[in-house]
Amino acid sequence: MAQTVLIIDDEKKLCDLLARIIGLEGYKVFQANTGKDGLKLLAQEDIHVVLSDVKLPDVNGVELVKQIKEKKPYVEVINLTAFGTIADGVLSIKNGAFDYITKGDDNDKILPMLSKAMDKAQLQLKVFQLQSKIVKQYSFDGIIGHSKAMQAAIDLAKKVSVTDTTVLLLGETGTGKEVFAQAIHYNSGRKAQNFVAVNCSAFGKDLLESELFGHKAGAFTGAVKDKRGLFEEADGGTLFLDEIGEMNIDLQAKILRVIERGEFIKVGDTKTIKVNVRIIAATNRKLEEEIEKGHFREDLFYRLSVFQIMLPSLNERKDDIALLAKHYLKEFADKTNQTITQIDADFIKHLENHKWKGNVRELKNIIERSVIMCDGPVLTANLLPLDFLFEQKSSLSTFDLATVEKNHIQKILHYTKGNKTETARLLNIGLTTLYRKIDEYHLT
């Protein structure tokens, strides 16, 4: 990609001369004689570095820096002036300029400075593009669901995302709580900072405390050096505490202190550390019941539940099942390089009639498994696990259960390339039973 420079100067002869000099260095150069024309070119072209005179006919070049940075923050700006002042130089840098040069005296500095500014601008552009990609990936538009229940949850998340308010996400396992937490973070003013997630049920009390707050060397056996905790990693950003209902009640008091005071003490230390962290917590438990049992602090619950969002289970949003199935079909077909373009109506019917204990996570696994098993361009009902078909016997109009079982075993054998041990494992049956079924159905 060409390295581009925009020169903004109302002295046309000087502008042409500077353009020729810079062009000989291999840069692609654009010219403008007013701030307005410069901003227009900035919007139309992929500009990396701007060289702008301070005295322009329609705007002060120092103020123009701020406008350029607001439109394209990755672009670097170098101010040029015939009469430099300390005050203008300070304001120029404060507004985001790369540097401030006096014409004539510093001509020999322009090209080396331009090279440095170009390197910085291109690096910043890559970072900006990556951040934009991440923000798009975790946008609210990426949350799949048109049902009223899901749209209501999305609307609440959008409203709270622009604030720093603590959020409590409620819902069954597999309803997408981390997806919502990420969307809230990446649509907030903290999106350029870290999003850090931790599953509180995955650690014991002491280990979770060390993970969250870090520790000093020698704090316990095995602590050979200082360790940064997740609160420090999330400073300026968001910490997602998943399954917070599983957290030990003694540790809950330390979480409360961070929320109330923005400070904590590392394990084995006496020094207080200040942090600015937004907390999003999630649980599938009914915390009011946990409070009555003495398992959860009431004061922490009230601090966490300033803004609650209840995520609907998949059984409460059956209208979204077909939409989700098609989304995951594309994802896994692309992943496995398969050309599967359709889902049979009977397949969708079975999905809609199923009781989803694992919610969206379970649906995703079912589609992935079906894609692996599929040999043609269409997902058909016989690719579903047997329990799906057995629970809906009345809908098996074109084949009996024995045929379903035979076809299913044949598919698994094909998938494992005839490996009987692996086939028995996937079917969750004994190897002896598998051999009996192979003989019974005359399978090869």
Query: pLDDT average, as an integer?
Result: 90
How many β-strand stretches?
A: 16
Portion of residues in beta strands equals 5-15%
Rg over C-alpha atoms, rounded to the nearest angstrom: 30 Å
> How would you describe the oligomerization state of the chains in this entry?
single chain
Q: What is the top-level CATH class of the largest domain? A: Alpha Beta
What's the domain count?
3
What is the fold-level CATH name, i.e. the topology of the largest domain? Rossmann fold
The backbone outline, from C-alpha atoms, is extended
Q: Helix- and strand-based class?
A: alpha/beta
The major pleated sheet works out as: 5 strands, parallel
CATH superfamily of the largest domain: P-loop containing nucleotide triphosphate hydrolases
Helix content: 40-55%
Strand order of the largest sheet: 2-1-3-4-5
Q: Distance between termini? A: 57 Å
Q: Which runs of at least 5 residues are low in confidence (pLDDT < 50)?
A: 394-398
CATH architecture of the largest domain: 3-Layer(aba) Sandwich
Number of helices: 19
